[in-house]
Amino acid sequence: MPSNIRNENEVDVLVIGAGPAGLMAAFALARAGVNVRIVDKRPDKVSAGQADGIQPRTLEVFKSYGLSDRLLREGTQLHVAAFYNPSKDGLGIELTDRVPDVSSTDTNFPFEAPLPSIQLTLHQGAIEAIFLDSMRDMGLEVRRPVLPISIEVQAQADSEERDAYPVRVVLKHADTEETETVHAKYVLGADGAHSWVRKMTGIAMQGEQTEYVWGVVDLVAETDLPDIRNKCAIHSNNGSCMIIPREGDKVRLYIQLDGKEVVDDAGRVDKSRCGPEMILDVARKTLHPFTIESPQTYDWWTIYAIGQRVAERYIVHDRVFIAGDACHTHSPKAGQGMNASMQDSYNLAWKLAHVLKGTAHRNLLQTYELERRHYAQELIAFDKKFAKLFSGKPYSELNLDGVSHAEFLKAFQTFGGFTSGLGVQYPESIIITSNQNQHLAKNVLVGRRLVPCPLLRAADCRPTDLHDLLVSDTRFKLLVFTGDTHEPSQMAQVEAFAQALMTPDSDSKNFFGGFSSLERIRSVLDVVTISSEKKGTIMYNRLPRALWSHWSKVLVDDLDMRGTTGGKVYESLGIDPAGAVIVVRPDAYVAAIAPLNGASEIGTYFANFMKAT
Amino acid sequence: MPSNIRNENEVDVLVIGAGPAGLMAAFALARAGVNVRIVDKRPDKVSAGQADGIQPRTLEVFKSYGLSDRLLREGTQLHVAAFYNPSKDGLGIELTDRVPDVSSTDTNFPFEAPLPSIQLTLHQGAIEAIFLDSMRDMGLEVRRPVLPISIEVQAQADSEERDAYPVRVVLKHADTEETETVHAKYVLGADGAHSWVRKMTGIAMQGEQTEYVWGVVDLVAETDLPDIRNKCAIHSNNGSCMIIPREGDKVRLYIQLDGKEVVDDAGRVDKSRCGPEMILDVARKTLHPFTIESPQTYDWWTIYAIGQRVAERYIVHDRVFIAGDACHTHSPKAGQGMNASMQDSYNLAWKLAHVLKGTAHRNLLQTYELERRHYAQELIAFDKKFAKLFSGKPYSELNLDGVSHAEFLKAFQTFGGFTSGLGVQYPESIIITSNQNQHLAKNVLVGRRLVPCPLLRAADCRPTDLHDLLVSDTRFKLLVFTGDTHEPSQMAQVEAFAQALMTPDSDSKNFFGGFSSLERIRSVLDVVTISSEKKGTIMYNRLPRALWSHWSKVLVDDLDMRGTTGGKVYESLGIDPAGAVIVVRPDAYVAAIAPLNGASEIGTYFANFMKAT
């Protein structure tokens, strides 16, 4: 045992569990400068199999941390969803349709940029490695194998006192049998479907076990199926199958199994009754007349029964949280699991960072449960509908009650916004306004993540999506749509806004007026200024200096120099020509819309949960 | 001195000089599996200043080696060329125009992809670091400081014998004063404008010194010039200036100086007579009414007189080569120097690799001088014209002989294909055919690098540019444009072609029939198959197996699944609906066009310089 582990330690946040949810939390907190520790009971990280789908919204989040290059390089891109159904001769299956794998979330936004709309596959171990390597660069390592022994939330838990360490956790280092006591300000249980933290805090799961049993196998497939490199949903008269291409030449097959054959008397899956060959045999019947050979080795396989459950609470005493599989379990079909888990802790991390830094009140933390439990409930509802359609017998003249391709495709596309993660909607709260100013930005949906906005940097005409500036640095972002700054009267409006909002110690009684310096304001609020002036004439340095901390933060709504991308963002978002200000949260969700003369409105929004410093 | 340096060593290729030309050569040869050594007389690599421009064609070459990500991440992108000219009031300068920095090379190809058309700036040291890191991964290090003492080409130089080491070079390790003798099959002198190899082999430079003296300074500029992040060409009544944005917030200023003030009696630049402040003072007069403050420190600066010269030969005895500044010197204005140098050795490396592996005859090597000296002569001709325009006084009512903006812009755009590197044309030779079959691919220019062709992978509809498959692996690429493979008669043609060309030991008397296996053919010739069938119906695995070594090598000419990019490549290239085969060299230059029944024509092309193995 390393000698630097003492028996009593203090830490701001202790993360228990180093799967995707725990690693995202530890990484995001460390990046935000929070003192964090992470432990896991397993001796090593996942090396193969497990979760594999990366939804477009997750890719966006990785990009906001500068981590998407590696995901894109290592992952397999899915562009096509192919549908196979019984052929007319009734003897097997045939190709019915090939459609885009990710359907547009919202017809208002036909310009969703290519990058975030790609679905990727990459095995869980590779994703964990991205976090582990980035954490190591910041001096943070997962301590393992470490088991939690006890957890206790002490009396001062409700204190607003920032120096309180009210959560006491005893850990056992399994390799040395030594124990240590950790005093934490906050604890996150990201310890999986059988969460110890959840059990110890007495949080119940709500929902039920389903009748569905799934077999999953990873292999390099020798096959004549022409869509083996596409996502395939196959409905045959002999069962259903889903194919997901993986890294290199690997694929994953999902097969629904007959529960009776693999479930024991107690209702649990009995792995001794089955194996990958059994799964492949079922796949062969479904794929006929296409063939698939048995490989030399199987990369990974599993069989499991599906529960559809959500935790009744995500937070205890505002001090202990659970995230990921500890909160929700469901089927694997829509590739949601790992994504939902990472999004849970991504949602929590920036809130914890603000509270720990003293820039926000503790009431901010409650929005974590509100937002993520709401999402999980929608996820289960979706899962129930989709599982039914997927498992149904295909429609035919002999089976008029069956699921037709049109019906299945419609469901696939309807849920596209949800399964891509791009259309997730958070409910109204202290950080999501009721949206009084929709007329100023007609197509901007408050409570959803901001859509991609292809613009140009004014100073050098480099194509820049707004998301390139919505980096995950825990700062709120103020998007100042100035209107046409070539007009002197409009420029005067912009100057007045800058004066009213971005000037500390002003007489305006504005919330930000209470900050001690412009630097302090900028430490919680970055400003991006977007003019509707054209690239040929704009002089970025004529815009008020308080509205851009660097020349790269002034954008114009125009086509790029090649005339091929960018522009029409004012039109697409429905921005009022007189200008508008959009408040975007640190996680890129739209929080509020205000007019250019709405500095006090914006101040009121922040005063609800933020402290002037 | 490390003990593993013996006094007598053998090596396939010895590279003398580790600047951009030498490093590209050593890297490219090592990547091709060639036994190479590289030495340099300087104790360290360049750390600041020097060359900085990366032209689009160079970016393409880096991409073909998988090295472009780092260039794009570290480099600054230039999108705009801004032009400033005397303002109407005559008191200073004003913005005249902003145009794309890279103009399209050829109006036949409006679809040039965004990536390769970006001009980047990145300092020479960073570019050298990319090579050094990649070489280190292959176990190759630059030995320094090492001085060459003597070079001697022995009698067996002209031998076709692959095991001959006819070049004898004595090296001195400057740190230990020890010498060693290297016996090399080939030697490359990439040792700069004052090349020792050039002098020792008695190669003369042809051309002249110019009257132009330039001052160059790198700094972080505090200025109110709104185009400080764009490339600026500034013509004032007080002189000319060029601004090039660099990494971070740095910029480089190029100023033409009065030769009399800085040149000594012998005509050499006297650096003691000037400094960066002097350069900046001249810039201030040119930029008025815009201001520029003196920085705390200057990153780098230099002053130099320009020679416009080309070496009379690039090759001695087909065994010793020179490349880069050793072959050509010219002005820095078009950012050509480092690019031309790397392209020299990129051109040479694949030819040397084939000769050393025994897959090509030694006659291939002569094309190096033919192609790169031809290019250097064009470069000097361009430089003369452009320098005159750049240095000229601006046109005004008082100076009717001056250079007008329209005239300067026209020259800037006319030379765009050349300065971007995308429009370089190699002359006819044993590896560039006279292009008998233009009608089969009307817009494909033999002797030029293949233009970007946005296609889709048939198996998974992933957007893929043909250049993504034109990797620098020393293999020639056969682009088989099959026509519509949905038509059985067309498919029969494609099958016949595969049989005639890609079948070893056939009775066809075809050159590739003489190879001992399909694998041997593929070791020198990769095949990419491009169908005009549509993505919704194509079954990639129905195409002849000999025409794709992997599922990723079958492409379709269609829009991507989002309907935004790709397609119309048959139309843009003017491909005959009956199909066509395009032979592309290992460096992505188009070598020949043939019909689908032209297997023997293709064989004849290769038989000119290649050996069946």
UniProtKB/TrEMBL annotation, chains A, B:
Keywords: FAD, Flavoprotein, Oxidoreductase. Transmembrane segments: none annotated. The keyword Transmembrane helix does not apply. The keyword Transmembrane helix does not apply. Signal peptide: none annotated. Residues 424-611 form the Phenol hydroxylase-like C-terminal dimerisation domain. Residues 10-382 form the FAD-binding domain. It comes from the Eukaryota. CDD domains: PHOX_C. GO terms for molecular function: FAD binding; oxidoreductase activity, acting on paired donors, with incorporation or reduction of molecular oxygen, NAD(P)H as one donor, and incorporation of one atom of oxygen. It holds the Pfam family Phe_hydrox_dim. Belongs to the PheA/TfdB FAD monooxygenase family. This is FAD binding domain-containing protein. It comes from Rhodocollybia butyracea. The lineage of its organism: Eukaryota, Fungi, Dikarya, Basidiomycota, Agaricomycotina.
